[in-house]
TrEMBL record:
Name of the molecule in the record: MULE transposase domain-containing protein
Amino acid sequence: MKDLHGITLSYIKAYWSKDRVLYKAFGDPWGSFKMLPVFFYMLEQSNPGTITKIEKDSQNRFTYGFMALEACVEGFNTVIRPVIAIDATHLKAKTRFVLLVIVCKDDNEMIYLLSFVFANSE
């Protein structure tokens, strides 16, 4: 910043500036989790047979959310090998949640998506 614009910028000021821009661009990450029930309801209405589940703990805090589209489940039941693989990646946001992806292979050795899970830990 100093070379390009002649501004001395501390690390913490750059961090908070980036955080503020991300908040304005994408909104509050916790607000997104509050919208999950509405999103899952609309997903079930537009895709009959889709399976969704949101689990909360005793203090009404989000624990995990599960989503499996009906087309993926039907494909798994008819043409996919019955071997499932689960992989996780940590979401590097304020929420610190984990995204789990459940996949399997089809007859052509291609990866077939089965479902997603958003969880607070593996």
